[in-house]
Amino acid sequence: MSATCCNANCTASKPIPPSYRRALWIALVVNLAMFGVEMVAGWGAGSASLLADAVDFFGDAANYGLSLFVLSMSLAARARTAMLKGVSMGAYGLYVLAQATWNGVHGVVPEALAMGIVGTVALVANVGVAVLLYAYRDGDANMRSVWLCSRNDAIGNLAILLAALGVFGTGSAWPDLGVATLMAVLGLFGATQVIRQARMELRSDNPRTSAAAIHP
User: How many Å apart are CA 216 and CA 54, to the nearest integer?
Assistant: First the structure.
C-alpha cells in the first residue's frame, strides 16, 4: 500500500483505470500462450523448472481472469479474490517442490538447449507483462498480487537460464532442481504477502459494513 493512503478503504474509492483492464487482457493472452509452449517443452526436455514455470503461467492466466472479473466489485470482494490467489500461489510453490523432489529421486537430467531457448522466450514474455503492470504495483491486494506474480515470473525465468547453463556445464540435474526450488520459495513468499494484505483489507472493511447495517 502507498504510505499516502489513509487506510484500505481509500483504495476502494479510487476508480479502476481502463489502462489496467487492457493490461490484464494482454497479460491473460500472453500467459495462456506461454503455458502451452512450456508444457510441451518441459515434458519434452524433462525439465522440472520449465514444467514449474508452465504451471505458473497457467495459474497467472487464471489470476488475471479472476482480476478482470472482480475489477468493478467492492474492496472486500477484491480482497477475497486476492486471498484465493494467495492460496493458489502457495499451492503452486508446494507443487514445484514435489516435482523437483520427484525428478531428483529419479535422476532426470533435462536438455539444456531446450531450457535455454524456451526460458529466453518466457523471459521476454514475462518482462513485457511486468512492465505493463509495474504502475499498478502499489494498489489494493488484488493489484499487488497481480504485480507480484509478474515480478516473480521474470525472476524465475532468469534463474531458468542460469540453470540451463549449469546443466550444460555439469551434465547434472541439480541446477534445474535448484531453480525449481527457488521458484517454489518465491511462490510461497509471494503468497504470504498477498494473504497478509488481503486480510488487512478485509478487517478494515468490516467496520464500514457493520455501520451500513445499523444505519441503512
Answer: 48
Per the domain annotation, does 132 fall within a domain?
yes
CATH assignment at residue 98: 1.20.1510
Contact between 198 and 190 under an 8 Å Cβ cutoff? The reply is no
Give CA–CA dist 22/35, Å, rounded: 20
Q: What is the pLDDT of residues 98-150, one digit of tens each?
A: 878 887 887 778 888 988 999 999 999 988 888 888 877 776 666 776 777 77
Pairwise CA distance, residues 3 & 191, whole Å? 22
Within a domain: 67: yes
Residue 74 lies in a domain: yes
Tens of pLDDT, residues 57-93? 887 887 788 778 776 667 677 777 777 778 877 887 7
Measure the CA–CA gap between 35 and 61, rounded to whole angstroms: 9
Q: How many domains does the chain have?
A: 1
